[in-house]
């Protein structure tokens, strides 16, 4: 169990590099524990004497060309993607810049995930790029391929049946996305890509072949997460859909819905796959509990504490963090019944908080939280 996300602070634990002449290395503490005003079912209120938890910024990394769109942790590295097309690699724990890659095409980077020695990046040009990490090369992060691959494209482009209508008088191969790819997820040898074109595509990592294209939602897909053989997709259409893999194809197993006016921007799932939380418009955060077969779900919490839309979330044990367009990060405690109550707020960003990433390294029940913003 994690008591707080406050990392130990001392001069020996972290050496903050001088990243730029204008960068700062600390943000004032936040020590706020507001009272929840909107709860679903009988979620217990925190006791009046519940101790507040403070959080301190260890460093501000500000050498990014454009707003931060995605973060990922891969071994000793923290990767940050930006609207400026570059992916910057920071070496933990001192957070010095180790490398840059990704420039030279593809448009803004919308999402990235890592698996072993590979990095997958989703771009505004509707393509997924695959990079390999190699210590033996001068170019440490080397471009391996682009999805769909040339081989996959040539194998399908000659048959008319492989084309689908994307808009009036316009067709594309079913293996191609027709709009920006907004999110990625990796699980069990597969990579999933969600797009503003409303489709969810499934790729095999072994040969980078597109296996499926699913008309998943009625509006743009903003979030994806894969767990225990199940994939969850969050959309502007106000639904989180549950997809299960059987007989080499994915089928719809359930639809999670919360407040009728809220669209979804992010989704996270617990390690056992039984608890799912979605964040969306108007500051809503909602949670569901599923059964062992992942085919039956019930709403267990619905709170609205942020002043603006929830844009991103991360979950570590019983601690749920939510980043919002109101420039704050909410820190929530998850209870046995799935309900949540807010135990703290982290402030300091000057723009909407777009992405959150938890470091896998844990010290004494505390862990590091990285946040990226449109500031």
Q: Radius of gyration, rounded? A: 21 Å
Report on the biggest sheet: 4 strands, antiparallel
**If helices are DSSP runs of H or I spanning 4 or more residues, what is the number of helices?**
1
Number of DSSP E strands: 28
Mean pLDDT: 81
How far do the termini sit from each other?
Answer: 32 Å
Under CATH, the topology of the domain at 68-257 can be stated as: Methylamine Dehydrogenase, Chain H
Q: Element order, helices and strands?
A: EEEEEEEEHEEEEEEEEEEEEEEEEEEEE
Strand neighbour order, sheet with most strands:
1-2-3-4
CATH fourth-tier homologous superfamily of the domain at 68-257: YVTN repeat-like/Quinoprotein amine dehydrogenase
| Low-pLDDT residue intervals, each spanning 5 or more residues | 1-52
Specify the helix fraction band: under 10%
Structural class: mainly beta
Shape: globular
CATH-scheme architecture of the domain at 68-257 = 7 Propeller
Write structural notes for this entry.
The protein has 375 residues and is mainly β. It has a domain of 190 residues: Methylamine Dehydrogenase, Chain H (7 Propeller), CATH 2.130.10.10. The protein is built from 1 helix and 28 strands. The chain has a 4-stranded antiparallel beta sheet with strand order 1-2-3-4, with no helix packed on it. It has a 4-stranded antiparallel beta sheet with strand order 5-6-7-8, with no helix packed on it. Strands 11-12-13-14 form a 4-stranded antiparallel beta sheet, with no helix packed on it. Strand 15 and strand 16 form a beta hairpin. The chain is globular, with a radius of gyration of 21 Å. The protein starts with 67 loop residues before the first strand and ends with a strand. The N terminus is likely disordered. Pfam families: WD40. InterPro entries: JINGUBANG-like (IPR045182), WD40/YVTN_repeat-like_dom_sf (IPR015943), WD40_PAC1 (IPR020472), WD40_repeat_dom_sf (IPR036322), WD40_rpt (IPR001680). Keywords: Repeat, WD repeat.
